Amino acid sequence: MPQVSQTPRQYLESVSPDLLFSKERSVLLVSEISKKLGLTDQHVLNLIEEGKLIALNVGGGSRNFWRVPMEAYEKYLVDNLSLA
């Protein structure tokens, strides 16, 4: 678990930098997250629907197009994955 003075990103950089994306990114696609974590797109969508991974729906009409803020992705990793 991160020390009090560490941000989630700093903690992840120290324990599992391969799970991180470039610092210049602000939002991620479902497909990018699924590939990085070795999950299916549907599994990531389920995490979003269950409220375990915060995402923004940028779709219109009957279509959902989810974008996951970088901070939400990093928080999900810290809160849910066993990295140590």
What summary fits the major beta sheet?
Answer: 3 strands, antiparallel
Radius of gyration: 13 Å
User: Which quaternary structure do these chains form?
Assistant: single chain
Q: State the distance separating the first and last CA atoms.
A: 8 Å
Q: What share of the residues lie within helices?
A: 40-55%
Count the DSSP helices. 4
Question: Structural class, please?
Answer: alpha+beta
Total count of strands: 3
- The tally of structural domains comes to 1
User: Could you say which overall geometry the principal axes of the C-alpha atoms support?
Assistant: globular
Characterize the structure shown:
- The protein is α+β, with helices and mostly antiparallel strands and 84 residues long.
- It has one domain.
- 43% of the residues lie in helices and 11% in strands.
- The protein has 4 helices and 3 strands; from the N terminus they run αβααββα.
- The chain has a 3-stranded antiparallel beta sheet.
- Strand 2 and strand 3 form a beta hairpin.
- The radius of gyration is 13 Å and the shape is globular.
- The termini are close together.
Short description:
The chain is α+β, with helices and mostly antiparallel strands.
Set out the fold topology.
Elements lengths: L7 H8 L11 E3 H8 L3 H9 L6 E2 L8 E4 H11 L4
Antiparallel strand pairs: 1-3, 2-3
Helix pairs in contact: 1-4, 2-3
State the main characteristics:
single chain; 84 residues; alpha+beta; 3-stranded antiparallel β-sheet; 4 helices
